[in-house]
Amino acid sequence: MLSRTASDLYWMSRYLERAENLARMLDVSYSLSLMPQDGRGDGLHELAMPLLITGTLDDYLARHGELHAERLLHFFALDAENPASIYSCLGAARASAHAVRGRITADMWENINATWLEIRGIAEQGLGRYGMSRFCEWIKERSHLFRGASYGTIMRNDAFRFIRLGTFIERADNTLRLLDARYEMAGDQAEAVSDGTAHAYYQWSALLRALSSFEAYTEIYRDAPGARHVAELLLLRADVPRSLRACTEEIDQILASLPGTNGRPAQRLAAEMDARLRYTGIHEILDEGLHAWLTEFIPLVRQLGNAIHRSYLEAA
Fold first, then answer.
1. How far apart are CA 173 and CA 177, in angstroms?
2. If you average pLDDT over residues 247-266, what whole number do you get?
């Protein structure tokens, strides 16, 4: 497969996954901002959390000067001038899909093209008429439909592998950043398993719901959500679809199945990351410090993405 084709397939799926992750992040921040803040600040600080997670706080302040709820929501959802907005991600995904129209199925193309046309209509109406929660649910639904169309209609060839690869690289990065942000937001109560405060309960529950893992948590653990069990679930459980371990396991298997020897640096790094998670216990992570461990692992995911780019996506 040509590196340009592989790159378009990879980034098509990364941008779609990024749009869904932004919708999940925005939905939970919006929901928490409407709740009593228990003396920990107003709802604007909760709404600003996506700015901190995505590193776009400076860009927002340069354009808008101060935090404002309506402008914050528009900035992340429908701002065509913000390259990190959901609107921009879907536009980039659609452009990549158009470039590889002959390598994806009609069902996949029709889904992503219809999604792009519909979000343009939503942008013309504005979020005020559509509704924030409804918009986020729609984004997640369109992403699920695309993944279903991909999994159900495309041949299991290299195109399929690069599509899946982009999805899991993006998902791993998002899970790490969301967990780190919510751990910091929990403040003094972060280490508690069940501290009895509404603040800690809703912070951890919101994170689990954002990653579609709340049901999995209640099935596995009896305690109220706290740092130890939430981190164990989202970092080390291979049976939780959005956990870091599930993502690295998929990435390792996909890279190992790609032909040729150019990808050995990426394959070796993916295997090392997967083995590290496979043989690490949650007590080791907490002994090191959850924030310190996360801030060490986030650059590894970026390093793996760079290795994949050099190995497969750069023109020879």
1. 6
2. 94
Q: For the chain, what are the domain ranges?
A: 1-154, 165-316
Mean pLDDT value across the chain: 90
Which amino acid is residue 237, in one-letter code? R
Residue 234 neighbours by CB under 8 Å, 6+ apart:
175, 179, 207, 211, 213, 240, 242, 243, 244
DSSP annotation of 221 reads -
> CB of 224 within 8 A of CB of 214?
no
- What's the average model confidence in pLDDT over 247-258? 97
Helix then strand then coil, % of the chain, to nearest 5: 75, 0, 25
Alpha carbon distance 33, 46 (integer Å) = 5
CB-based contact 92:11 (threshold 8 Å): yes
Confidence (pLDDT) at 275: 97
Q: What is the mean pLDDT of residues 294-306?
A: 96
Q: Would you state the pLDDT for residue 188?
A: 44
The pLDDT of residue 186: 66
Question: 49 vs 8, 57, 103, 111, 207, CA distance in Å?
Answer: 30, 9, 38, 30, 12
Q: How far apart are CA 251 and CA 257, in angstroms?
A: 10
DSSP label at residue 223: S
Give CB contacts under 8 A, 24+ apart, made by 45-50: 47/72, 47/73, 48/72, 49/25, 49/181, 49/185, 50/22, 50/25, 50/26, 50/76
The DSSP code for 48 is T
pTM for the model: 0.92
Q: Could you tell me which of 176, 173, 192 has the C-alpha nearest to residue 294? A: 176
Q: Is the confidence at residue 194, as pLDDT, over 50?
A: no
Percentage of residues of the chain with pLDDT beyond 90: 71
**CA dist., res. 33 & res. 199, Å (int):** 12
